[in-house]
């Protein structure tokens, strides 16, 4: 938060400098974007050895200055002129090694080979999304002593590598919003932009809006802007503090789509500006009679994916009980009519799905909360705890449930017109190919799912067409450090909370791209933790060997839940 406030404060002070000169016709120019025009950067200090040259080259590769000028000064003259690094970055661990390669001598005393070895944490893709990777990093550099006696790199790599700490200092994470017709909500797509110059932050964010969703989210959301839409002028702050966004190419977009486009832009920019925003399309207001906007003026598009603050249940000894008062829910699910193994409540709170043990197998039942639940023709040796798909605004009560059969088949059931719950297919090949699936949670906006696969945390996107549902772009999060995961839930649309069987790292919070991981306070917990549930504006709730515990923040000490009981598995709607 301190970093964001600093960025916003500096942005507000210098934003007026980004104005386009009045003497010329305003057009969109890339002058405030990194990587465009070479700038003067001081030469490195004299007398640096080859290892230091390489280390400083890597450290300065993280500075997204114009034309990679900060890193380019460590190259010889030919390389400076000809080096064209590829888009994107490789992010490596802060601790990496640089050693002379003595096994492959060049035969020239004025040339040296240096090997860099470290651990790869992920890649910043060309679409500015972080993609987690677990791999070794190795790169060889050749250096040559120049006429002035200084060592310089002669064969710089096409792919830039930067340390994790330098990446965090120089790049700013922004949730770019995209619309999900599936839930009627806006979905965050985590992307990274150069933090400096601060005055250009809104322009760089707007570029990502225009580029559309990242590869990991493509197909799971609707891209409201076609390829012809662009900015007519630079995104800039005017003298009265308004941020101007002038679009062109909107054409015959409907009033509904124009309102959604306005919401998408405002939601995406709200993390980098506090200014009111003026939205124009081809010279006139994007939304008729609404030219100036603030985020507070937008309708709450995500109201239907937020669980009611009073909702929350738990399974205890084969029955479903309320977290609010500890009492059993109505119907067979609460009175012992079913031997409940696990359960899930729809986001709207109106329906319940349970996994029931019967005749040596586990079966799915679904129906209205408090009533008899219909037995579905879906069973196996084991079924994972059910999870509900959200419903778009005005779409009625929830009507789709997912589970995993025998750890290797992702299944869903939908509510048919005749009131029966029927099986439907999911192409989950990319996910099941990673291993045994023990837990599955649909995001409450319906665009993604989180899963526990072979004890690791995985996120994938959900792509729907008229006649198919498929899981795409599965990615393991914090693969090196996060192991023995036993449960997961969506704390927000872009953050997960996971529980592990580890005594040293029992509960963690992870952004959906896995770029970092934060541990919750574990002082009051009694490992192993076996369950976790979370939701926006609700307390985080975990189940350990002693019962149920709640905490709101990462550093907060866990407190007993009001109706704690041992062997309970808690769950919020979703």
TrEMBL record:
Metal-binding found in the keyword field: no
Superkingdom of the source species: Bacteria
Domain Lipoprotein LpqB N-terminal per the UniProt entry, residue ranges: 43-167
Classification via InterPro entries: GerMN, LpqB_C, LpqB_N, Quino_amine_DH_bsu
Domain Lipoprotein LpqB C-terminal: residue ranges: 326-573
UniProt-listed PROSITE patterns: PROKAR_LIPOPROTEIN
Span of domain GerMN: 179-286
Protein name as catalogued: LpqB
């Amino acid at each position: 938060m301190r970093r964001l406030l600093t960025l916003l404060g500096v942005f507000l002070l210098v934003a007026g400098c980004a104005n386009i000169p009045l003497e010329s016709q305003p057009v969109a120019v890339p002058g405030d974007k990194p990587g465009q025009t070479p700038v003067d950067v001081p030469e490195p200090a004299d007398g640096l050895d080859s290892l230091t040259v390489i280390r400083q080259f890597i450290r300065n590769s993280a500075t997204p200055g114009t034309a990679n000028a900060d890193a380019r000064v460590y190259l010889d003259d030919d390389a400076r002129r000809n080096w064209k690094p590829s888009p994107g970055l490789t992010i490596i661990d802060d601790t990496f090694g640089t050693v002379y390669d003595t096994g492959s001598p060049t035969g020239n005393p004025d040339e040296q080979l240096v090997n860099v070895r470290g651990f790869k944490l992920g890649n910043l893709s060309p679409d500015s999304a972080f993609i987690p990777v677990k791999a070794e990093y190795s790169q060889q550099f050749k250096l040559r002593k120049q006429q002035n006696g200084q060592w310089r790199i002669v064969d710089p790599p096409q792919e830039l590598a930067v340390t994790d700490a330098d990446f965090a200092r120089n790049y700013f994470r922004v949730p770019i919003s995209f619309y999900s017709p599936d839930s009627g909500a806006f979905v965050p797509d985590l992307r990274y932009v150069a933090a400096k110059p601060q005055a250009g932050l809104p322009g760089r964010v707007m570029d990502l809006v225009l580029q559309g969703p990242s590869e990991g989210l493509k197909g799971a959301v609707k891209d409201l802007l076609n390829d012809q839409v662009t900015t007519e002028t630079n995104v800039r702050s005017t003298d009265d503090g308004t941020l101007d966004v002038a679009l062109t190419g909107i054409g015959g977009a409907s009033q509904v789509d124009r309102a959604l486009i306005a919401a998408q832009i405002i939601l995406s920019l709200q993390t980098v500006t506090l200014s009111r925003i003026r939205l124009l399309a081809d010279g006139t207001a994007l939304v008729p009679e609404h030219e100036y906007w603030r985020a507070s003026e937008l309708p709450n598009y995500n109201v239907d994916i937020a669980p009611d603050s009073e909702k929350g249940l738990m399974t205890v000894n084969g029955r479903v009980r309320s977290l609010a008062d500890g009492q059993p829910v109505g119907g067979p699910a609460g009175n012992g009519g079913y031997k409940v193994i696990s359960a899930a409540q729809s986001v709207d709170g109106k329906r319940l799905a349970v996994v029931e043990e019967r005749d040596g197998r586990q079966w799915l039942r679904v129906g209205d909360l408090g009533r008899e639940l219909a037995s579905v023709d879906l069973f196996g040796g084991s079924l994972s705890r059910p999870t509900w798909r959200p419903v778009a605004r005005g779409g009625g009560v929830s009507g789709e449930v997912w589970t995993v059969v025998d750890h290797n088949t992702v299944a869903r059931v939908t509510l048919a017109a005749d009131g029966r719950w029927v099986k439907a297919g999911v192409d989950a090949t990319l996910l099941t190919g990673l291993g045994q699936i023990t837990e599955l949670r649909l995001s409450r906006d319906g665009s993604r799912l989180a899963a526990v696969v072979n004890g690791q945390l995985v996120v994938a996107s959900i792509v729907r067409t008229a006649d198919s549902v498929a899981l795409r772009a599965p990615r393991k999060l914090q693969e090196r450090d996060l192991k023995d995961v036993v449960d997961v839930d969506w704390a927000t649309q872009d953050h997960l909370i996971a529980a592990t069987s580890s005594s040293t790292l029992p509960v963690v919070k992870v952004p959906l791209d896995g770029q970092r991981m934060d541990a919750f306070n574990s002082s009051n917990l009694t490992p192993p933790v076996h369950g976790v549930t979370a939701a926006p504006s609700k307390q985080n709730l975990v189940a350990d060997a002693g019962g149920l515990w709640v905490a709101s923040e990462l550093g907060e000490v866990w407190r007993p839940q009001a109706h704690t009981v041992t062997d309970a598995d808690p769950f919020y709607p979703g």
